[in-house]
Write a structure and sequence with these properties.
The chain is an alpha+beta fold and 312 residues long. It has 6 helices and 12 strands. Helix 3 (103-115) runs antiparallel to helix 4. The model is unreliable at 48-53, 212-226 and 228-245 (pLDDT under 50).
Length: 312
Amino acid sequence: MSTGLAVSGRAGVRRAVAIASCVLGLGLILFAFSAGPKSSKQASLANGTASVAAPQRKKPARAWNVALGNVVIVAQELGLSAKGGKEAAEPAKVAARVESQLQSLREIYRQESEKNPALMGIMIFQLSVGPAGEVTSLKEIFSRLASPEFKKTARAEISRWSFQDVLADGATIQCPILFVREGMDITTLVQWEKALGQSSEKNAAANARSSETPVQQSQPSESHRPPAPTAVQTKGAERTPPTGAARPALSVYQLRFVTSLRKEPNFSSVVLAKLAIGAKVALLESRGEWIEVRDESSGRSGFIRKEFITSR
């Protein structure tokens, strides 16, 4: 009798444990269902907040576009144009066709610039287009490169270009090409060339007006002729003035564009500092197209191109 009671008691315990397990499992299932939508809503809300906030973040714009190697570019801002022909040419198509044919000229420039670190500047060509889009004539209308041999090679390469399906017979293209050394600020270089071009046009107009109405001036005699002014105080004279003489004042200039202050007068030299627009520099010495200056704010000396300064 006692044995039967014990068996029935153990069976009751098992049933109780089974019932408790079922209740616990149902509770976990209900909790999962109730928590799931909340977490998904929270995730979607978080994602929504991130998506709304993301467009408000702005990446800082680069102050300049520095060439990562010796490059050749077509400078549309300096007067790329196409005129004449049976149909009007789209400037974007002309620029794209020129760009697609620059690779050979780039390879030539990289080879030549390794031999001549000072080889840089602008060339502006005038091209006439024939019936099949070929270049029938080529004229160099402006140049700021100091190598006649390289300019001759560049003209020969450009004369092989083709504008088939882009320009009709009789069209004339004006094409400015920039040859840029590694590390140069391309944006500043374009602004510099544009400013120099405008200055040259004003000087040409002024010369034309003065030639129309010449003024006769009497020439002073040799005994009364004033001595010729010295344009640039030499480095040696500035640093070692004669004994007992007053130290000569240095000419002070301001920068027209952002530029690099370099250790030596070439674009391959180490950059000592970046100089901002309007920075004041004292002129120490002139070396051709380069000048040695001293930054008035930091006292550091180095070299920059002479076209980047203007008188204060």
